[in-house]
């Protein structure tokens, strides 16, 4: 059993909450506590989603636990009889006056329905309020289990989630569903490359004034300002429903911090951008990322076409060009997973044409702290 500390909090049913102590430096490697935390986190994610796409080794997870100028991070773990039974995190976004945070609570299924999650949520909310947070968000993947038969529609009018255990928990504690996000996957098959190439050629024929440029992180100096501008537009040009996510400010230094976070995890990231041939402006981009284990799933992360350059099939161009290059670099990755708001029909249509199919749905929930 781990030693008692002054920061231990008794919560309920013989369980305690403790802050997760991080090594002084991420490159020192994960401690036994971090390894246990990573294992419990992965077990909770697998129980909740039935998928291991988001599984992370302790070495991969550790660098993601440290905060920086863009995100204040804090983590806790729940313990009973010397064994870890769950984990929690609060990430406070530093843009917009640091009034928005994303919270996560995960409890192993064998220890649910004992009041642990409710007790931890109260503590997270108190901590968030003390830090000036007014907008608490959480993202939960929902499965039609626990006898949930009716659906909870998104207020956007697009998509719904089942009133499962997670939905009932969040509604009981004052959260409202604001948006439904579709989780989609592209599984590589013999016909995939041919389909991608046909779509790429068709998109190129509709965008003669643009060329494709690509780079692996870290971002080269010649593209850093354009990439920063596109990343900032992700917070203004992507459907946000009523989540009230803050507008992000990006510059060259923030791009370098962003790139360094991936490097610390041993991750590889390919950026594929469309560049206006006459002006040199970067006006669309797509990101593909993979962890140090190149046989795992690929994450398709941000994709954006600046609004003033839409109508030229640039979204299809950067996605297909990126996927074709990615397959050459990482042929062992079996599939690509991506997330899109249900009301983002343009991006969903591109994904569907490429061959992505829905595998899950995620609810974006919000609670206004008073």
Helix and strand layout, with pairings?
Elements: E1 9-10, E2 16-19, H1 32-49, H2 58-61, E3 71-80, E4 83-93, E5 100-107, H3 116-130, E6 135-142, E7 151-153, E8 160-162, H4 165-172, E9 176-187, H5 192-205, E10 210-216, H6 221-237, H7 252-264, E11 268-276, E12 282-290, E13 298-305, H8 314-329, E14 335-341, H9 345-354, E15 357-368
Parallel strand pairs: 5-6, 13-14
Antiparallel strand pairs: 1-2, 2-3, 3-4, 4-5, 6-15, 7-8, 9-14, 9-15, 10-11, 11-12, 12-13
Helix pairs in contact: 5-8
Which features does this protein show?
single chain; 370 residues; alpha+beta
In short:
The protein has helices at residues 32-49, 58-61, 116-130, 165-172, 192-205, 221-237, 252-264, 314-329, 345-354, and strands spanning 9-10, 16-19, 71-80, 83-93, 100-107, 135-142, 151-153, 160-162, 176-187, 210-216, 268-276, 282-290, 298-305, 335-341, 357-368.
Structure description:
With 370 residues, the chain is an alpha+beta fold. The protein is 31% helix and 31% strand. It is built from 9 helices and 15 strands. It has helices at residues 32-49, 58-61, 116-130, 165-172, 192-205, 221-237, 252-264, 314-329, 345-354, and strands spanning 9-10, 16-19, 71-80, 83-93, 100-107, 135-142, 151-153, 160-162, 176-187, 210-216, 268-276, 282-290, 298-305, 335-341, 357-368. A 13-stranded mixed sheet has the order 1-2-3-4-5-6-15-9-14-13-12-11-10, sandwiched between helices. Strand 1 (9-10) and strand 2 form a beta hairpin. The protein starts with 8 loop residues before the first strand and ends with a strand. Residues 1-6 have low confidence and may be disordered.
């Amino acid at each position: 059993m781990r030693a008692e500390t002054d920061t231990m909090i008794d919560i309920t049913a013989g369980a305690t909450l403790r802050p997760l102590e991080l090594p002084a430096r991420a490159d020192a490697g994960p401690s036994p506590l971090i390894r246990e935390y990573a294992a419990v986190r992965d077990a909770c994610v697998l129980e909740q989603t039935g998928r291991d796409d988001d599984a992370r080794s302790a070495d991969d997870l550790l660098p993601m636990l440290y905060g920086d100028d863009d995100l204040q991070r804090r983590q806790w773990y729940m313990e009973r009889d010397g064994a870890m039974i769950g984990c929690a995190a609060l990430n406070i976004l530093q843009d917009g006056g640091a009034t928005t945070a994303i919270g996560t609570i995960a409890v192993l299924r064998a220890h649910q329905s004992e009041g642990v999650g409710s007790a931890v949520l109260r503590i997270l909310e108190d901590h968030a309020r003390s830090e000036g947070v007014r907008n608490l968000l959480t993202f939960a993947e929902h499965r039609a289990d626990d006898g949930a038969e009716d659906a909870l529609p998104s207020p956007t009018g697009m998509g719904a989630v089942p009133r499962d255990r997670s939905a009932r928990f969040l509604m009981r504690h004052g959260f409202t569903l604001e948006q439904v996000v579709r989780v989609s996957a592209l599984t590589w098959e013999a016909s995939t490359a041919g389909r991608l190439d046909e779509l790429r050629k068709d998109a190129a024929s509709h965008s003669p004034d643009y060329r494709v440029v690509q780079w692996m992180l870290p971002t080269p100096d010649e593209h850093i300002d354009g990439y920063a501008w596109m990343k900032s537009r992700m917070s203004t040009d992507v459907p946000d429903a009523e989540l009230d996510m803050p507008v992000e400010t990006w510059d060259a230094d923030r791009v370098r911090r962003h790139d360094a976070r991936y490097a610390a995890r041993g991750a590889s990231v390919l950026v594929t951008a469309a560049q206006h041939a006459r002006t040199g402006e970067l006006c669309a981009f797509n990101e593909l990322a993979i962890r140090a284990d190149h046989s795992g799933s690929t994450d398709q992360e941000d994709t954006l076409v600046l609004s003033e350059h839409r109508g030229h099939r640039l979204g299809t161009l950067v996605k297909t060009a990126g996927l074709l290059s990615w397959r050459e670099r990482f042929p062992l990755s079996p599939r690509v997973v991506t997330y899109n708001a249900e009301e983002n029909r343009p991006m969903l249509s591109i994904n569907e044409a490429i061959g992505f199919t829905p595998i899950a749905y995620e609810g974006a929930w919000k609670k206004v702290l008073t």
